[in-house]
Amino acid sequence: MKNSKIYIAGHTGLVGSAVLETLVNNGYSNLLTISSKQLDLRKQSAVDDFIAREKPDGVIICAARVGGILANNTYPWEFIYDNLMIETNLINAAHNNGVQNLIFLGSSCIYPKLAPQPLKEDYLLTGPLEPTNEWYAIAKIAGIKLCQALNREYGRNYISLMPTNLYGPRDNFDLQTSHVLPALIRKFHEAKNNNHAPVTLWGSGNPRREFLYVSDLAEAIRFILEYPGKLPSDLINVGCGNDISIKELALLVQEIVGHKGDIFWDASKPDGTPRKLLDIGLIQSLGWKHVVNLREGIEKTYDWFKLL
Ligand code: GFB
Q1: Residues 131-165, buried b or exposed e (16+ Cβ, 10 A)?
Q2: CATH 1.10.3720.10 given to domain 6-170+210-241+276-292
Q3: pTM for this structure?
Q4: pLDDT in tens for each of the 308 residues of the chain?
Q5: 302 is an active site residue
């Protein structure tokens, strides 16, 4: 098992790098990776050739075009096209080369914008999506369906994990394209170093989000990889089980960073979905639970950011 050849697609990103680290630390000795320079996952024949040549035993798809609310809203084409191509090429090549086990990663934004909370797996496709990220969400829903179609028709074991908002070391800290947590860390840090200048954040601060430290997701992936026997579902949420408003999050990051200035809210920027708290009953019933709490995770991420 630990010498199975497992291909981690997207091993340099936030999630892929944490998965690589976790599996190496747990004795996996035959992990396969390739840089995006050497293999463009959007190119079908290149992906086919790579998978046919390497013949992995399992595939973990961490590769994706990801970004925060503004990036999703500004680049609808890149978010839908790149994600559709990456996942279709990888899942198709894996299936054609007899790969029986695959893990695909999505996001909590696949659920309807106004679905009841917490979000259960079976709320998928029960209502309209949040418009700022429907392009990304539709690509991810297609990925879930690709896996489910192969499971149903060909008996594959292709599992889709739906993580909540993730953060941690090696995240994207670019203020135009990042998610909220790295943006807050950077904004408060730079403002502190600028005589505690005011910080401007986006939207109203009222939306609520659930955050999971990326090493916890990597552990959840390992847990699913090593799960003995058949899983009860091929769509499983991964979260920590509680959420926080963006205003509360801002105060927490401000305190951890040590910024003492004002906070302003730019109402011209979108709020996005009001709330997306995952129901994590299913993965908890299997025996998995997160370990890193939000304060500790932000402190670790800030320590990493200061070394940049
Ligand atoms: O993390 P975030 O960009 O994405 O924003 P989503 C979360 C909330 O934080 C929104 C607010 O209400 C933002 O308006 N916010 C406040 C900020 N200040 C900032 C800031 O400086 N930068 C950013 N980025 N946000 C994404 C989806 O939605 O979540 C993706 O667009 C994906 O597709 C990802 O699903 C997990 O949580 O709203």
Answers
A1: ebbbbbbbbbbbbbebbeebbeeeebbbbbbbbbb
A2: no
A3: 0.98
A4: 899 999 999 999 999 999 999 999 999 999 999 999 999 999 999 999 999 999 999 999 999 999 999 999 999 999 999 999 999 999 999 999 999 999 999 999 999 999 999 999 999 999 999 999 999 999 999 999 999 999 999 999 999 999 999 999 999 999 999 999 999 999 999 999 999 999 999 999 999 999 999 999 999 999 999 999 899 999 999 999 999 999 999 999 999 999 999 999 999 999 999 999 999 999 999 999 999 999 999 999 999 999 99
A5: no
70 CA distance to ligand 1 middle (Å): 7
Q: Is the CB of 179 under 6 A from ligand 1?
A: yes
Report how far ligand 1's centroid is from the alpha carbon of 38 (Å).
Answer: 31
Q: Is the CB of 263 under 6 A from ligand 1?
A: no
Residue nearest to atom 9 of ligand 1 (CA): 180
Which residue out of 7, 28, 111, 136 is catalytically annotated?
A: 136
Domain extent listing, the chain: 6-170+210-241+276-292
Is the C-beta atom of 203 inside 6 A of ligand 1?
Answer: yes
Q: Select from 175, 193, 178, 203 the least CA-distant residue to 259.
A: 193
Q: From the CA of 270, how far away is ligand 1's center (Å)?
A: 9
